[in-house]
Design brief:
Helices cover about 65% and strands about 0% of the residues. By secondary structure, it is an all-alpha fold. The longest helix has about 35 residues. The relative contact order is 0.16.
Length: about 200
């Protein structure tokens, strides 16, 4: 705007800082910024949808174990399902022993066993579905608890998780492109603006 206001007095020899080049760079930078905003909104939307979908996982895993017990499955099968249930809830099979801490020694390091990433939660549900598929007596009346219903839930969660991965890649690519347009040495908007001021 300032350069345009100078009119014909602004007439540099360097073609990269002439008014048409500046206007083109400005338009490109605006588009790059808009692309980051748009792809970030898509990423946030996919993340929120995934969050809502995964909120059902913990309660349904509890119900699956109850339905499996009611079906008359063997103790070993129930134990297998309970193992996946614990993993979905982020609990250990056995609680870690608490060792008295000697004030003169460094505190013991504990290792997390929660396995709560979305990929791992999907794996735990897949394990639980595999367990109930092998139990012929497992036939709950609720459609969402049936083997088909659980397989559909597994597919839905996988798709929603993949949508987050895909949109994250898009926003990352848009940010890289934006940063190049704004900050590339000698050709980025910041360096060009510095030349214009000089």
């Amino acid at each position: 705007t300032i350069v345009t206001g100078f009119g014909p007095i602004y007439n540099p020899a360097n073609p990269v800082i002439k008014l048409p080049a500046l206007q083109s760079l400005y338009a490109t930078a605006k588009d790059a910024l808009r692309k980051v905003t748009d792809t970030n909104q898509e990423f946030n939307k996919a993340t929120n949808i995934r969050l809502v979908a995964f909120d059902r996982l913990r309660p349904i895993s509890t119900t699956i174990v109850s339905a499996l017990i009611a079906s008359g499955a063997t103790k070993e099968t129930i134990d297998d399902a309970k193992g996946f249930h614990r993993k979905i809830h982020g609990r250990r099979a056995l609680t870690a022993k608490v060792v008295p801490v000697d004030p003169d020694l460094p505190a013991p390091v504990s290792i997390s066993a929660s396995q709560q990433s979305y990929d791992q939660l999907i794996e735990h549900l897949a394990g639980m579905v595999a367990v109930v598929k092998l139990v012929p007596m497992y036939a709950p009346n609720e459609p969402e608890l049936s083997v088909v219903g659980l397989s559909d839930l597994l597919t839905e969660l996988e798709n929603k998780n993949q949508a987050v991965v895909d949109t994250h890649e898009a926003v990352t690519t848009a940010r890289i492109a934006r940063n190049k347009i704004l900050y590339a040495e000698n050709t980025g908007l910041v360096d060009i603006a510095g030349l214009v001021k000089k």
